[in-house]
Design goal:
By secondary structure, the protein is of the alpha/beta class. The chain is built from 17 helices and 15 strands. Strands 3, 4, 5, 6, 7, 8, 9, 10, 11, 12, 13, 14 and 15 form a 13-stranded mixed beta sheet that branches. A two-stranded antiparallel sheet has the order 1-2. Strand 6, helix 6 and strand 7 form a beta-alpha-beta unit.
């Protein structure tokens, strides 16, 4: 008897070719292939329908339009998506709602008494001003401004009140760095009259400078910027600084921004599993764009469209449903579309959704670096999917406050797959500029990126048990809790009970995962998500699960960030005293979340034992 040849690695191209060519056979010319599972069969079926030509056809139809939210171009792109899906028999709902949007119109910046000719732009939600003249103060880089410790922005006043910082009252601040919502907010608290940003590169990138998330409410409308904001290129910023080096200078600033309520349209495709009441996975990406938005986000929109069509054609193989949403209001309304959906479908998302995949910026020419953004519960899935495209170890980052990540309050696990250019190749330089046109899309790269999302979706939609890392999420909670504990100084003992309960939860989570590895079953979907939901909320939500937090990145267990004050500030100072009740209250929130997870985990463990 001869020995079989060595089997190639799981994702080796030869093995993938064999599967695609001889699905169901066990051998071919020495290539050994095991019978394909339902997951493998679905993945092959979906991948076979994703081709560069089809992606190009959809992208061309979308990218031909300039697509600011609420514009005729955006509506034309939405109409194309809806007509294409309905032509395939896909159920599509188009929701129309009112959103607070802001379109930059024009900006002029003049250094008084100089001959400098400056090209300038303003930003969404900048204030409008007519020929404001004031002294210009160079405050250095945005990183040099006072920072804030809570991750919520709610305590900025405490930080700003601590010197040193320049006297900006009634003056125009000159800041080197990419325009930022919180830099703008800090400068407003420092009573600056306006701000001029110097782009770190020789270009102008359109951006948004409000710290609100989604359409403002009575709870956060006070955060809307009330100072005008402009931007100049790097070379013009350097020229201004040379003038400032010799003499104080005054600047005239003019900005015009069109801000107000507009009707937006949100297209949502629903592809149910054979069991229409089954849980579902949400896939989302924004339809609006600055200018023509080739890679941000026409390529992603094309990928979403082809994925929706393919999964619809193969819907009889699904264990779970798929909902695909093209979010409006991303660029000029701070994620208004995804926030509206979270607000109006909160109960459905809470009771039926099991994961959220966000897609953004895929298909870039010369893309070489893969990475992912994920909650810990989907980190392993992200790594396993990307491993099929690259042998490199990839970085899985923690979710920030960007990219329509509007479902932290619902407690949904998140995954976003990234494939980008290297900095040495010029990076993503055309992002948010008129140069983001169709030629910035490489359709072979887009095919690869779309197939990665297809693989992640297949594993979520067809696996007998949801591929969620329950233990990984509880371990991440423990790491974050240990970090806060170590930094809390005299208050370390306050954390003892939370640490004990986290360890108890970790033990149960490990036992549940071990049992499910032997006895998989879709009947555990909602029970697993119910355990994860309270943990996601405390790990990724600084304040309130029902009112969106501000658009600021935060560290793990962001509500407990002030614990560091207890370890660094003397007890007789006001800041220490103010931190004490905040930490106590956040620990109460944390204990309640762990207890909810413990109760649900014990219930699931008992159910599994009775199988």
């Amino acid at each position: 008897m001869t020995n079989s040849p060595p089997r190639p690695p799981e994702n080796h191209p030869i093995l993938r070719w064999c599967r695609a060519t001889i699905l169901g056979l066990s051998t071919l010319a020495g290539c050994r292939v095991e019978p394909a599972s339902s997951v493998d069969q679905l993945l092959l079926a979906v991948r076979q329908e994703i081709e560069p030509e089809g992606l190009r056809e959809q992208a061309e139809a979308i990218v031909q339009h300039q697509r600011p939210s609420g514009s005729p171009g955006e509506n034309a792109a939405i109409d194309h998506i809806v007509q294409t899906l309905e032509g395939d028999g896909v159920q599509v709902d188009v929701h129309t709602f009112s959103a607070y949007t802001s379109d930059p119109v024009e900006a002029r910046i003049e250094v008084v008494g100089s001959n400098l000719e400056l090209e300038a732009i303003t930003f969404s939600f900048s204030a409008t001003i007519e020929n404001l003249e004031a002294e210009l103060i160079d405050v250095g880089s945005s990183a040099s401004l006072p920072d804030f410790e809570s991750g919520t922005g709610e305590r900025l006043e405490l930080i700003i009140s601590n010197p040193p910082h320049p006297d900006l009252q009634g003056k125009i601040a000159l800041v080197e760095g990419r325009p930022s919502n919180f830099t703008t907010y800090k400068l407003a608290l420092m009573e600056a009259a306006a701000v001029v940003f110097i782009n770190p590169q020789e270009r102008l990138n359109d951006l948004i400078v409000t710290t609100t998330w989604g359409s403002p409410s009575l709870r956060n409308a006070h955060r809307l910027p009330r100072l005008p904001v402009g931007q100049v290129k790097k070379s013009d910023g350097e020229a201004i600084r040379r003038l400032l080096a010799s003499n104080p200078r005054r600047v005239k600033l003019h900005t015009r921004v069109d801000t107000g309520w507009r009707p937006l349209r949100l297209a949502v495709a629903r592809i149910p599993a054979p069991d229409p009441k089954a849980p579902y996975v949400l896939l989302g990406g924004h339809i609006d764009a600055w200018y023509h938005g080739g890679t941000d986000e026409g390529a992603s929109n094309a990928a979403m469209l082809e994925l929706a069509r393919s999964f619809h054609r193969n819907r009889d193989q699904l264990q779970r449903g798929l909902v695909v949403a093209w979010w409006p209001g991303h660029s000029n309304a701070r994620y208004a579309g995804s926030t509206w959906f979270a607000d109006h479908y909160f109960d459905e998302l809470r009771t039926r959704a099991v994961a959220y995949l966000n897609i953004d910026g895929v298909g870039q020419i010369e893309a070489k670096r893969f990475s992912a953004t994920a909650t810990a519960s989907l980190s392993a899935l992200g790594k396993s999917v990307i491993r099929s495209a690259t042998p490199d170890d990839i970085r899985v980052g923690r979710p920030g406050r960007n990219s329509d990540q509007s479902f932290n309050g619902v407690g949904l696990p998140l995954l976003q797959i990234n494939h980008t250019r290297l900095a040495e190749d010029g990076g993503y330089w055309w992002w948010h500029t008129p140069a983001d046109t169709l030629d910035k899309i490489d359709f072979d790269v887009l095919e690869t990126d779309t197939e990665l999302y297809a693989e992640a979706l297949v594993k979520l939609l067809a696996a007998p048990t949801l591929p969620l890392g329950l233990t990984a999420q509880v371990e991440t909670l423990g790491e974050a809790l240990s970090m806060r504990h170590e930094n809390s100084g005299r208050a370390q003992s306050w954390f003892d009970e939370a640490l004990r309960r986290q360890q108890e939860l970790l033990g149960i989570a490990s036992r549940i995962e071990e049992t499910l590895s032997r006895k998989p079953g879709r009947d555990t979907d909602l029970a697993l998500i119910a355990i994860l939901r309270p943990l996601h909320r405390v790990l990724y939500v600084p304040a309130n699960s029902y009112h969106p937090d501000s658009g600021a990145d935060s560290s793990p267990l962001p509500g407990l960030a002030p614990a560091e004050i207890l370890g660094t500030v003397e007890p007789d100072q006001d800041r220490y005293g103010f931190a004490v009740p905040m930490v106590r209250r956040e620990l109460n929130r944390l204990l309640e979340a762990i207890d909810e997870a413990l109760e649900r985990a014990r219930r699931l463990e008992s159910r599994l034992a009775a199988r």
